[in-house]
Design goal:
The chain has 250 residues and is of the alpha/beta class. The protein is 32% helix and 16% strand. Strands 1, 2, 3, 4, 5, 6 and 7 form a seven-stranded mixed beta sheet that branches. Helix 1 links the parallel strand 1 and strand 2. Helix 1 packs across helix 7. The longest helix is centred in the last third of the chain and has 31 residues.
Amino acid sequence: MLPWDGSRPEVIPQLDELRIVGISASPRHGNTEILVKEALDAARLHEGVATEFVSLAGKKIQGCSNCRACIKKGRCILKDDWEELFRPLVDPVPDGVIFGAPVYFYSLNSQARCYMERSTSLLKGLFFPECATKPPDWTRTAGGAVTVGYDRNGGQEHALTAILQWFLINGFVTVGGGHLGYVGAPGWQMGGASLKAVAEDENVGLPSARTVGIRVARTAMMLKAGAPALGELARSGSPGAGSGSRQEEK
């Protein structure tokens, strides 16, 4: 039996409320938003999980211009909506993130790419000791991906992989969509142009989104439950323990 079906007895200590953030990178309030919210609803089935939803629809997000001003300033100097939209991922760092994007030309849309790429302004402290800002620590944050394409095989897996690559590069602990969505939740518009078409994708899109939501929640629980043990290992001098930058739980 698979461990996710509840058949394996687990002992999870009492935890504080978990916070999971869902992001829809679509320029419209439609299919991607539906799939992200489906995953968030599934995550909330677990007691103690609170969710927050962020939409990029109607927002202005420029791409990174590599001006390098963030090295001295400690933040991005471009004036648009990115800082406000990205704040839920850093203030405070959440326990889980579910990132959703529509498929454009077999990959992510430009809003999703710009949103991700601008995070480099927060990471300069990894490379430049003179940087004024300490990089966020996502090593105890679970991440899952959902996408929506017009065609059944229109590039969903490529877009999912791009999201997961961003998660992995930045230290997130990633989850997949099981043996249905594989690396995430690959929704599709059922051959129609409706903004609610994915709500009919009961064979793959919706059930794999629910799996992503459940796995993000359960992985976040395990990461939070294991944090004190990692702190003990770090204090004991065990190699590789406590390598993240979050303050160790006492």
